[in-house]
Amino acid sequence: MRASDLAPRAGLRVVTLGRNPNVSADQVYAGDRISDLLNAAGECILLVTNLASAQLMRMAELLDVPAICLVNEQTPDDNMLRTAQEHATAILVSSAGLFETCGRLHRCLNEEEQGP
Amino acid sequence: MRTVCRQIQGGGYEEGGAASRLVKEQLKRIGADPAVVRRAMIAAYEAEMNVVIHSHGGELRAWLEDDCLHVEVTDTGPGIPNIDQAMSPGYSTASAKARELGFGAGMGLPNIRKNTDEFAIESKVGEGTRLSFTIGLKPQALYGSGRNSIRIAAEKCRQSLRCVHACPTQAVRVFRGKPDILDYLCIDCSACIAVCPSGTLHVTGTAAELKPGADTVLVVPPAALVQFGPGVSAERVLREAAALGVGEVHVTAAWDAALQQAVLEYAASEASSRPVISPVCPAIVNLVETRFPSLISHLAPFVAGFEAAHRVLNGRGALVFVALCPCQRTALTGADSAAPEVILPAAFSAAIFPRLKSSAGARTCPETAAAGDESPLGDATDPRVMRSEVLRVGGLQHVINVLEAIENGLAGDLSVLELYACDQGCFGPPLLASDPHLALWRWEAAPPPPDPEARAVRRAAAFAPRRGLRLDEDMRKAIQKLARIDKLQRSLPGSDCGICGAPSCAALAEDTVLGRVAADACPRQRPTGEEDTK
Question: Which domain holds residue A27?
């Protein structure tokens, strides 16, 4: 499912869109440790995390991560936004916590998988 | 690539990753495979952040050498008291600040080791730590061996995309304007070389020259002897070759005839699967092992004629082979016993031409040389025998048609097959100047006497299916990737136009999921999932 379609269905706010508006987000990986995110990161993977930091953006840049979802309504600072725009990484924000956000994403992707 | 060198500040979290980014830029510039870039970035970033988190400061150096990325990260202390402990997953001495930022999981060093091909670490307390790793730039860890002799001069590529469509195993890609060959699919035929209009694809070893010496044992295939136009017989070229000052000259024709005879006898007495496929062309053996593994039992257990010549003549002197195509070169240079020197037909012609010019009067007409001679290849190549028992097929498309017919049980009337990747067999590789029909006619008109030492040689190792691509080492992830490939393929037009640089939509879907190409490579792709709503 496209990240831009997924966001409203999962109750996520789009802060900035990535390099490809059609980017597929049919896989999600959630974590709060950089090493875990590094191992999972790649094209077409939506990373869900509470690590709203410049380091997260640097990692996304190195691993070509197309989209990141920050949980607990964490707002990216100017530095993060600048890096995201420079490297065209989409940033979504969820008002819910990590667990609840993953549940919503799972539900949306599951519905997508089963079809209408 | 020039050496990348960047200082890393201890505690400099804001700048952490900057050195790794420099490495990534260099890898992108040389068009490294995205899967390789990914591994390199995981390892480099972990190593760089270790310096930031744990040390007083240091530096990262990276360079490319021998198809590998080499990275060395050093720091000025405090050093690691127990490296074994530091290498244990989950062990960490990171500060509270580092943990707050998501570091300190104790997975840094294990991650580096996991994503690199060679890894070393040494440390002295009070002095510092030196960590180094190497990553092969070809992502072969997940693929089969697939050695080949085809090389790419990317700067010459004009993106005609002919190679993409010509390859019978869909091994060629032209992404981001640069051609690439997937080794695990390449069968080492010369289909891509034959259609390349710019010389981008070529056989390695073009610089090798013939340097004759008294102990040189020169082995020449028939086709190389009939590249000198009308009136220059194979026998005369052989005489000129001998006059170059080499110790011995052998022609592989009789070895091919011996193989044919052996295969006929094998088909008559031993073969359990019919028709029997002669291993006369290594590219076809590769094709069967790669694309038609169900037909492996049809391959006769012998080595090709030129390989048999190598086995028998090995140790006689300084062996020099004229290889007609990439697969012959690969078979010779990758042999178990000592590899001979291999030159290409152009080098042989370059050595012979000056002698032909200087003795232009001493021509021997092919017709007169042939008069009264018996066939030097014996009964095995008697046209009557070949017509009834041996079917020769040249050209990859025809070969594939025949192999498919065998797979479908539609070739029960055939006995022995000699299948060649090139049209007109070994007279047709694109490395030869003469038209294959003319060359074959000239050879058959006046072949030189057969080599008395020729005989067939049985293979020591059995033929085996070539290991193909694994989508992922982790089976669960492999299955997920397969599902993504299937889904993505359904969003592609299915016209296999090749404009993206992949030979088919299915290949593009696989390349996209494996990270070889960006997700938007196809200009006609529908948004993923659209097909589900219709």
Answer: 3-114
Three-state SS at B274:
coil
3-class SS at B73? Answer: strand
Point out which residues pair with B181 in neighbouring strands: B172
Tell me phi and psi for residue B431, to 5 degrees: -80, -10
pLDDT at B190 exceeding the cut of 80: yes
Q: Do B520 and A20 touch (CB under 8 A)?
A: yes
CB-nearest partner of A62 from B45, B101, B111: B45
Q: Which residues of chain A register pLDDT less than 50?
A: 116
ipTM over 0.85: yes
Assessment of whether the complete model's pTM goes beyond 0.95:
no
pLDDT of residue B339: 77
B504, B24 Cβ separation under 8 angstroms: no
Determine what percent of chain B is predicted with pLDDT higher than 90: 48
- Structural domains of chain B in order of their starting residue, each with its CATH number: 4-136 (3.30.565.10)
pLDDT the model gives residue A65:
86
Residue B519 in contact with partner chain A when CB distance is under 8 A: yes
Kindly state whether A100 is in contact with chain B, defined as any CB-CB distance less than 8 angstroms: no
Q: How many domains does chain A have?
A: 1
pLDDT at B300: 95
Mean pLDDT within B308-333: 90
Chain B residues with CB inside 8 Å of A4's CB? none
What's the Cα-to-Cα distance from B77 to each of B57, B113, B122, B127, B128, rounded to whole Å?
8, 21, 12, 5, 4
Cα–Cα dist B47/B67, whole Å: 21
Q: How far apart are CA B329 and CA B150, in angstroms?
A: 10
Which chain B residue lies closest to A109 (C-alpha atoms)?
Answer: B529
**CATH number of the domain residue A107 falls in:** 3.40.1390.20
Average pLDDT of B78-90? 88
Q: Are the Cβ atoms of B21 and A62 closer than 8 angstroms?
A: yes
Residue B27: closest C-alpha in chain A: A62
State yes or no: pLDDT of B400 exceeds 80. Answer: yes
The Cα of B519 is separated from the nearest Cα of chain A by a number of Å equal to: 7
Sorted by sequence, the CB contacts under 8 Å of residue A38 that are 6+ apart come out as A59, A63, B42, B45, B46, B111
The closest CB to that of A22, out of B38, B103, B520, belongs to B520
What is the predicted pLDDT for the residue at B386? 47
**B506 near A CB under 8 A:** no
Q: Where are the alpha helices (DSSP H) in B305-344?
A: 305-313, 326-333
Taking the mean position of all CA atoms in its chain, how far away is CA B297? 24
Angstroms from B490 CA to nearest CA on chain A: 14
Taking the Cβ of residue A110 and every Cβ of chain B, the question of whether any pair is shorter than 8 Å is answered with no
Rounded CA gap, B177 and B166, in Å? 18
Determine the pLDDT at residue B371.
34
Say whether B532 and A33 touch across the interface (CB within 8 A): no
Chain segment A58-69, per-residue pLDDT in tens: 999 999 888 899
Instruction: Please tell me which residue of chain A has the smallest CA distance to B24.
Output: A62
- The pLDDT tens digits of the residues spanning B1-46 come to 568 899 999 999 989 999 999 999 888 877 777 778 888 999 999 9
Closest CB to B529: pick one of A1, A20, A32. A1
Q: Work out the mean pLDDT of chain B and round it to a whole number.
A: 85
A61 touches chain B (CB under 8 A): yes
Two tokens, residue B330? 């690969």
Chain A positions in Cβ-Cβ contact with residue B513 (cut-off 8 Å)? 44
